[in-house]
Amino acid sequence: MFYFRLAATNLRAHKRIFVPFLLAMTLLAIMNVIMLSVHADAGAIFGNNGVGVQAAATEMFKYGAIVMVILGVILAWYANGFLLKQRTKQLALYNVIGFGKRELRLMVEAELALCAAISISLGVLLGIAFSRLSYLVLGKMLGVPGHVAFGLDAVPLLQAAGIIALIYLLLVLLDANWLRKHRPLEMLRAASAGEREPKTRWLLLIIGLVALSAGYAAAIGITDPLGALQWFFIAVVLVIIGTYALFIAGSVFIFKLLRKNKRYYYQPAHFINVANMIHRMRQNGAGLASITILATMTLVTIATTITLYCGVPQIVAATDPADLSYLRATSAETKKSAITPAQNQAQVAALAAKHHVKIVKRTVATISASVPLRFVGNRVRLASDQDYSGLFGPKPGLMSSDLMTLAHYNQMTGRHLQLVKNEILLGGTRPLKQTTLQFGRAEPLRVRGTAKMAYQPNAAAMGNALLVFKDEAAMTHAVRAFGSKVAHFAAATLAAPQTTVYLQLKGTDQHQIALTHAIDRTKLGAMNVRGAADNRRTVLHWMSAFLFMGILLGIMFILATALILYYKQVSEGLADAKRYRILQQVGLSEREVKQTINSQLLTLFYIPLIVAGVHTAIAAPFIQRVLTLFQIFNWGQFAGIVAATLAVFAVLYVIMYKATAQVYFRIVK
């Protein structure tokens, strides 16, 4: 009990550093309760979807919970390290009055036990309330019934409490190891001896420049969506390495350059700041780099998830270009099912009327074959595996290509075009300016005009092309020109064309979803039935889940940023208090001291925000290319969301800075 009473006294006496630690650990417990509750209830939340979607959502939130735990461990480790560093003097005094390493360890363990009891209790209680509140928000986005006991299940509460307890146990082990390796009295003497001027670390500076340049080059130079996805995490790692290296080594190099500029250096505010920064950036660099990375992660995570949520209409329009579509049975299958195309049309129309849906437009597209082709100049060849694995993703000119006869094209468009021998129509979702096309060694075909692609989904990674041939003979001749290896495949594929029926509907989403399911259940010679309304609901649920997780992770990043800001202000204030008292004693006025302090704080704490803004601006086009894989092509919308997110975060950052700066001023005074 003695150690617990002593621990309680220490918590009250050092509340300036313990209260933020307790707040951080309590918020960490709340975040874990929310994430684990979502994971536990994912089946109920996504109950309107299929079993596969429910399982996938459960898996996604499981990984989100794992990420939350990893971030929590890092945050707790950083905060605990700060506590030990700031309490070196106190531990040394206890050492002087007779406390050995065993007694110091027991005292620190009692302090962590009290902190654990407080943060777990508050975290679980507040976590229940915030879980229910977050469920109401998520449930509103997903249209989930309100009777689900989200946030009230005992299992995620016990799991969250267990996770926080394990983190505290890890801190106990780290503190015991720290006390075993260090002598508080020796550390106190080392701190009193002051800091030496750091040398410029040229190797680290060069590594930082190379890594950051390579990361930026990847973000700017890789224009292909799949290439951007392949290089995304590599670019992120390079930028993180470059940021840390440049803040640690580059900052010292820059301040030494400023010291050489006599006109700038020999001014009271600049003289003191530059001299301070040179000595302090070695230890401050890593902290400022951490703030920069956390700020960038916050901006990217929230902006990306908001864009995905707002891009649901674009995703649905690209994947389901018609309100309802289905594959109609081929002639062979029609004989087996005894349902003709006319009967299929009539029965689908009857089902639509039954479900209060009006068919506004009906389009029939018969594709003879769909093959990956690569267009190199006027030459066309069948795509190989190597064409998909270029350095920056698929090689230029690779497109998913649909082959169609002129008769089927005229049926689809309602036109009456004619082609003569060696003529072709060519169209695509990407510009195709060829005037002739040569398939293998065959005679070149003249491009007569542009083929319109009715209701053709856009394969964002490669793009789509439509080639319209005069007849099946011309098409077969062109495909066989690719070589004998594909001759058999071509004959089998072209002999079984696929007919897709696209319907434009008028009716509520509920009625259109009911119609989609009715056609899928009824034997009407229809296969692979897809409805835009049904897909919209599924995609909206997914994007809402992404947004929800992004907001939770964003809050976690902001919490970590605020904690690092606060602890840096406290450590800076404690280190600078004695220095500024000496400056006032040698004649520096209070106004000049304030100007110097403001200048130093602005330099230390606004540079990370500026660098984070630059990182985000460079990453924005890179991320947009990845978003095109989700069929989101609205660059203006994404740029606006990034700008709005940056503006909101900048306001929050300034508020955090202003609040924590008051702590610094109180310590210095």
UniProtKB/TrEMBL annotation:
This is FtsX-like permease family protein. The lineage of its organism: Bacteria, Bacillati, Bacillota, Bacilli, Lactobacillales. It comes from the Bacteria. Residues 65-181 form the ABC3 transporter permease C-terminal domain. The keyword Cytoplasm does not apply. The chain crosses the membrane at residues 21-40, 60-79, 112-137, 157-179, 200-222, 228-255, 286-309, 542-567, 601-623, 635-656. The keyword Transmembrane applies. Its main location: membrane.
